[in-house]
Amino acid sequence: MQAHPRSITLIGAELEEGSGRRGAAMGPAALRIAGVDQTLIDLGHDVLDAGDVNVVPARDLPNHPKAHNLRIIGAFTRALEAGVYEAAAAGRFPLILGGDHSLSMGTVSGMARYASHKGRPLFVLWLDAHSDFNTPSTSPSGNIHGMPVAYFCGQAELADILPRDRPLVDPRNVFQVGIRSVDAPERELIAEHGVNVYDMRWLDEQGVAATMRHILGVITAANGLLHVSLDVDFLDPDIAPGVGTTVPGGATFREAHLIMEMLCDSGLVSSLDLVELNPFLDDRGKSARILVELTASLFGRRIFDRPTRAA
């Protein structure tokens, strides 16, 4: 595996209001403490840390009874959409440090605008225990971190957060891997709109490598750009406990690294979210370190380059 040097912009999103519990706002700091910037620099990449997005609640947005904290999440969505687009348009790789998964409403929308201007389709690889295709009318909780995929596919217009004529992601261009928790109405929406779901049973039966070869082949054939969104709960909670939405039976350490290594080999990835890290629930920074190690694999660290820590 040999990755060419990339120009990477780190963008922090101290967003926790989409999740319904406190702690994810500390995610960007934990990832920086775990050395995400220096790890990428050591791999030969140019890294610019743009700091954390600073916003105030968007007063032009309504309070929504079935989409909690819409004003602050809407403000983050607008800021992240603009920041991600500007980084990509400048020839840099946007790497977003989260923050709960509602931030992807902005990051994916920014990449969709960039892909549209390039005349190429955007694909999304959603590595998560949850499909996050709820809408305000289907969500049992009203927590917006369960709605971002439906939003950037144009199926959950919460309010006029972004222009309604913005570029959207075709639901058939969304590949969800590692899924193991889906609400019943959400399942119907996923089937109706053609989202590609590879749950843990699929991975158990078909294997990670075959699944990724298929996904990457589809994207290559379409000359697409690829946004990767990695939720901590994609991993089994025994490996990465620092998340507020643990679901047993997740991906193993090696399965996750294989995905990242294959993504690196493909050269298709244009942007990356690291989301739902809650340091308050973590075990001495274990989950943050694993996210940094997975990021290193995506950016070219070979397995025999990985340092061994003393027990």
Determine the mean pLDDT: 95
Order of helices and strands: EHHEHEHEHEHEHHEHEH
CATH superfamily: Ureohydrolase domain
Choose one word for the global shape: globular
Helix and strand composition category: alpha/beta
* CATH-scheme architecture: 3-Layer(aba) Sandwich
Low-confidence parts: none
What is the makeup of the main sheet? Answer: 8 strands, parallel
**Which topology does CATH recognise?**
Arginase, Chain A
Name of the CATH first level: Alpha Beta
Strand order of the largest sheet: 2-1-3-8-7-4-5-6
End-to-end gap: 28 Å
**If helices are DSSP runs of H or I spanning 4 or more residues, what is the number of helices?**
10
Question: How many distinct beta strands?
Answer: 8
Strand-residue proportion: 15-25%
Task: Please outline what is shown here.
This protein has 311 residues and is of the alpha/beta class.
Give an overview of the whole structure.
This protein has 311 residues and is of the alpha/beta class. The protein has a single domain (7-305), classed as Arginase, Chain A (3-Layer(aba) Sandwich), CATH 3.40.800.10. It contains ten helices and eight strands. The chain has helices at 27-33, 36-42, 70-89, 104-118, 148-152, 184-193, 200-206, 208-221, 253-266, 286-298; strands spanning 7-13, 46-52, 93-98, 122-127, 174-179, 196-199, 225-231, 269-275. Strands 2-1-3-8-7-4-5-6 form an eight-stranded parallel beta sheet, sandwiched between helices. Helix 5 (148-152) links the parallel strand 4 and strand 5 (174-179). The longest helix has 20 residues, at 70-89. The radius of gyration is 18 Å and the shape is globular. The two termini are 28 Å apart. The mean pLDDT is 95.
